[in-house]
Amino acid sequence: MSTDIIEARKIHASAGQKLLLSDINLSVPQGQFVALVGPNGAGKSTLLKLLSGLVYADSGEITLSGSNIARMKPAEISALLSYLPQRSEIYWNYRVSDILEIHSATDSLSLTTAHAVFSAYDHAKAFDIEQLIDRQFKTLSGGEQARVLLAACLISSPSILLADEPAAALDVSHQLQLLKTIKDRTSDGLTAIVVMHDLNLATRFADRIIVLNNGKIQIDGASREVSLSPALDHHFDVYFQRLSHEQQTILVPDFHSARPADKLASTSTNPLLKVV
Known about the structure:
GO terms for molecular function: ATP binding; ATP hydrolysis activity. This protein has 9 helices and 13 strands.
């Protein structure tokens, strides 16, 4: 029996005549932080939607904790995972505390109002949004809204987090804090698949990087090994100069015509790195 909490086998997905994803095979164990990267239009958001059960593939199978997602009820899926799309909108102008309480798995009817607000405030501190707890959601900046929505996704302690560019609207300090919070939760068993565009942040926080391009998984491996792969340059159509700092590879991009990929990075020392 598989120990992977997420599995996708031979997934194909299309929209009309356009093929979005082709032959996707993916296994993610519990407690792993996976960064999903790739150029625009590669299929990253589509893959997250498939894994969340919001849309269905043309063919193939996805299982969550051993159950076929196509046969799971929406309540069963939502009890297992939280999904944060690239663009989120809350149409009612709730307070931040209301949003956190609504997303809490705790039955709010059994709590006094003071206790419920305290729980929301306590959770908000981990995301540096305790000062926003009484604010109306629509009065917040884009970055503040993004932090509130991620906090709401994690307040019920899901087993899986699927997040599409959660740090995109944040300043540098809050990007680091948000990704560290996700990383810390994986130590407690959370499985996270996060779409990211900043490859240096992906290398720093993720255990594993999956590169999607042209609807296919092109590279899949440990973060450091992926950052050293010259195939990364090819799929992003740039030349990456690779700098080393405290055992972390820092990628500095330049136009593809500037130089060929660094030959010193051409050989992976990790046999588990998959390059297509």
